[in-house]
Amino acid sequence: MATLLDPQARGRVILVGAGPGDPGLLTVRAVEALKTAEVVVHDGLIDPRVLDLAPATAHRISVAKTRARHTLPQEAINALIVAHVKAGSVVIRLKGGDPFVFGRGGEEVEAVRAAGLPVEVIPGVSAALGCAAEAMLPLTHRDHSSAVSFVAGQCKGLSEQDWSGLAGHGRTLVIYMGVATASDIADKLMADGVAPDMPVAVLEKGTQPGHRAMKTLLADLGPMVTREAVRSPAIIVVGEVVELSDAEDKLARWARVAEAVAVEDAA
């Protein structure tokens, strides 16, 4: 098993997965690394209780990103990390979820290595795993799903992506960063052959205060996100395993609204 970089070494960086939100989901190694921090470069959604695990003297730098606005572009974040390491600091790059699951950890490792500097990665509980566990939603199940795939929902050229083999009978699809494009995602999946009545769940703010787990059918995904005012961070899970979860069923509300509109139109 790999160990932390030499604790006596000056000028080093450790990418640390902070998990989906709940500080209790940090690994022991993540906590140990945070306690050595002199500089903490962190994502915007990191729980303050996680940041408090670093020494009070550590310099904390937020590089928060949203879909519409980035505090710093990725290249600038890379340069910031490298500069602090070259200055001799112990830098903890604290990232939500796992650094290597849609966290751009690979790009940051490349930049640090290109500068000839030491780097280590401490994995974290990914958003998919943490949020699904909280909602009692098994991503795989012997009777319902033998495969699971992870995709980014805000990727460019969504309509050109081939998702035809990623969701359907016996398969689970987990979509990160898909709230803003939920309607397009549903249309894309149905166009690629997924049944409109495939169960789908939206797990909002998983493991954090105010978390919600909601389920409906694929054809109602976009409307549900709108009427429930879902906000990021949230993940979308598509597959038969959704029916096994504790997610609140929002389909009945959709049906009642549709029925009321039909009655009004008839009148």
Total DSSP helices: 8
Given helix and strand content, the structural type is alpha/beta
What percent of residues adopt helix (DSSP H or I)?
25-40%
> How is the biggest beta sheet arranged?
6 strands, mixed
The number of distinct β-strands equals: 11
Q: Tally the structural domains.
A: 2
CATH architecture heading of the largest domain: 2-Layer Sandwich
The level-1 CATH class of the largest domain:
Alpha Beta
Shape: elongated
Which stretches are low in confidence, meaning pLDDT under 50 for 5 or more residues running? none
| Superfamily (CATH H level) name of the largest domain | Tetrapyrrole methylase, C-terminal domain
Q: According to CATH, what is the topology of the largest domain?
A: Methyltransferase, Cobalt-precorrin-4 Transmethylase, Domain 2
Characteristic key phrases:
Cobalt-precorrin-4 Transmethylase, domain 1; 2 domains; five-stranded parallel beta sheet; EC 2.1.1.107; Uropor_MeTrfase_CS
Structure description:
This protein has helices at residues 28-34, 48-51, 74-86, 105-114, 127-134, 182-191, 221-227, 251-266, and strands at 12-17, 39-42, 59-62, 90-95, 119-122, 145-152, 170-176, 199-204, 212-217, 234-238, 248-249. It has 267 residues and is an alpha/beta fold. It has two domains: 12-125, Tetrapyrrole methylase, N-terminal domain (Cobalt-precorrin-4 Transmethylase, domain 1); 128-253, Tetrapyrrole methylase, C-terminal domain (Methyltransferase, Cobalt-precorrin-4 Transmethylase, Domain 2), CATH 3.30.950.10. A six-stranded mixed sheet has the order 6-7-10-8-9-11, sandwiched between helices. A five-stranded parallel sheet has the order 3-2-4-1-5, sandwiched between helices. The longest helix is centred in the last third of the chain and has 16 residues, at 251-266. Keywords: Methyltransferase, Porphyrin biosynthesis, S-adenosyl-L-methionine, Transferase. One of its GO terms (biological process) is methylation. InterPro entries: 4pyrrol_Mease, 4pyrrol_Methylase_sf, 4pyrrole_Mease_sub1, 4pyrrole_Mease_sub2, CobA/CysG_C, Siro_Cobalamin_biosynth, Uropor_MeTrfase_CS.
